[in-house]
Design goal:
Layout (H helix, E strand, L loop, with lengths): L1 H25 L18 H4 L5 H41 L28 E6 L3 H13 L8 E6 L9 H13 L5 E3 L7 H13 L5 E3 L6 H14 L5 E3 L7 H13 L5 E3 L9
Parallel strand pairs: 1-2, 2-3, 3-4, 4-5, 5-6
Helix pairs in contact: 1-3, 3-4, 4-5, 5-6, 6-7, 7-8
């Protein structure tokens, strides 16, 4: 009963909007249009209940075209706003962490990261010690909405003095950015305190990326579980050519998974897996 009532209300609103649009386009006085949904003529009750006539169908189609055009315009404006918002957030959160000599812009040597020059950024070389989840989210959204179209290298490092652990969420946001990017070629996460869960999150982005060719995970703690996830990503990737998992507490099981991933890959050319806990088998 409640569903039928909602359906009737929806049809009534459709017909009301349709009649109002017809009146406006025909140049009729606006007062001749129904003042509200409740004031629809009684002879339209059959149409509202489901028996649509030809004239009503034509009016509905015309109204639908108008709505679609308006919706496209609104979506375009919303996307432009999201692009601007994402680049401002990215610049504000990362400005203090980016090494200024490494902000290689197209054209002139800018000394600091701003919302104006960030779209020309080709290499993000930064260190972090706090607030990394928010920063990774801002980076991911900036990539998603096309605010960093020239970004080809991401090189991150941890500058804290003691191991504090990292949140898997930060690597999930980075993975989404890697997956969405069409320009990213090089991802260097050496000594970033990535554990097994973090590597599992990152593997999603590596597998989904269409452009990534280099992945450096040297000196982390991905272990066997993380190695298995990375191996699956290597097998799924069609672009990854270089992989470094040196010093990652990888044992025999993880090494076997990496070997299987390399064998299944059609693009990997170079693998560095030294200084792990791999036996003589």
């Amino acid at each position: 009963m409640m569903r039928d009532a909602r359906r009737r209300n929806w049809r009534a609103e459709v017909m009301y909007r349709s009649m109002s649009l017809q009146r406006r386009d025909s140049g009729a006085d606006s007062t001749s249009a129904p003042a509200s949904l409740q004031s629809l003529p009684d002879d339209l009750q059959r149409t509202i209940d489901g028996g649509l006539g030809l004239e009503s169908l034509l009016a509905l189609a015309k109204t639908n075209r108008a709505w679609l055009s308006d919706t496209r315009a609104r979506r375009g404006a919303l996307r432009r706003w999201r692009t601007l918002d994402s680049i401002v957030r990215f610049a504000n959160l990362w400005a203090e962490d980016v090494y200024s000599p490494e902000i290689k812009m197209l054209g002139r040597p800018d000394r600091e990261l701003t919302a104006e020059n960030a779209p020309r950024l080709t290499r993000l070389y930064a260190s972090w010690n706090e607030g990394i989840v928010r920063k990774m989210r801002a980076l991911s959204r900036a990539i998603k909405y096309g605010a960093l179209p020239n970004l080809s290298e991401i090189i991150l490092s941890y500058r804290g003095h003691h191991y504090q652990g990292t949140s898997p969420l930060q690597w999930w946001w980075l993975a989404r950015g890697v997956a969405d990017s069409r320009s990213l070629l090089y991802l260097d996460l050496e000594t970033c305190q990535i554990d097994e869960e973090g590597a599992t999150k990152l593997a999603f982005g590596v597998a989904a990326s269409r452009s990534l060719t280099h992945l450096d995970l040297c000196n982390n703690k991905i272990g066997d579980e993380g190695a298995e996830a990375i191996a699956a990503a290597v097998a799924a990737s069609g672009s990854l050519a270089h992989l470094d998992v040196t010093k990652n507490h990888i044992g025999d099981e993880g090494a076997k998974a990496i070997a299987a991933g390399v064998a299944a890959s059609g693009s990997l050319e170079h693998l560095h897996i030294g200084y792990n806990k791999i036996g003589v088998e």
